[in-house]
Amino acid sequence: MPRPHIAILGLLCAGACATAATAGGQPAPPSLIVRPAQLLGHTVRLHGTLAARQAGRTVLVQRQAADGTWAQTAQAVVARDGSFLARWRAREMGHYAVRATTAGATSRAASLALTANLVVYRLARATWYGPRFYGKPTACGETMSRTLLGVAHRSLPCGTPVEVMYHGQALTVPVVDRGPFTHGIGYDLTSATAQALGMAGTSNVGVIPHRGEQMAPPPPFGSTGGVPSAP
Fold it and tell me: Which listed CATH number (3.40.1190.20, 1.10.238.10, 2.20.25.110, 2.60.40.1930) goes with 10-120?
């Protein structure tokens, strides 16, 4: 079963994140940089650096499928300084591994290609609730408290894991209640979930509901063995 987790999503770099040259004047090592928290329907930009001798070559950006195979997603041409920029539109939610390899590379070379990971979320409007309901049962049989981690949703089955991302911080919690009942609001976060994410009011968040999965109620927020602190 998925476990509750919290993580910081900043700028991810595969290889060495470096400027055009090192302090010693040497060319920057190969790199692939992508912002790992992306939104559904938006354009993903992957910046990379290869050796300048690769200038003019075509770079293939590939995404790994669930069965482990790689499928081409985008391509770019290496500039004179060895840099490249590839773009693709995120059309599905989920966690993805991507890699960049030059066209015509051997299987072994492709396996050593620059790789990175990213997560595609759907944009949703969310608020939080809790204090008026502390000590009362939720629609999913939990007891609302200031430490209960979870979200309320109108139709997702109780226990469905929902990954919520807010300002670069992500937390996976189960559906524990029904709601929200305000037009235009897709999710109600419990007060503990909002606190863990640093959300103080109604805001836009990124979400990935893991339909068809079930998640055991997480330990109370702030308890020993609960959600670990973000790195």
Answer: 2.60.40.1930
Q: Where are the domains of the chain?
A: 10-120, 122-209
pLDDT number for residue 199: 96
Which contacts qualify for 23-28: CB closer than 8 Å, 24 or more apart? 27/51, 27/52, 27/82, 28/82
Architecture of domain 122-209: Beta Barrel (2.40)
Query: How many CB atoms sit inside 10 A of residue 155's CB?
Result: 8
CB-based burial, 40-63: b 16+ in 10 Å, e otherwise = beeebebbbbbeeebeeeebbbbb
The model's pTM is 0.81
Per residue in 180-202, pLDDT (tens digit) is 999 999 999 999 999 999 999 99
78 C-beta neighbours (distance < 10 Å), count:
21
Q: What share of residues in the chain are helix, strand, coil (percent, to 5)? A: 10, 45, 50
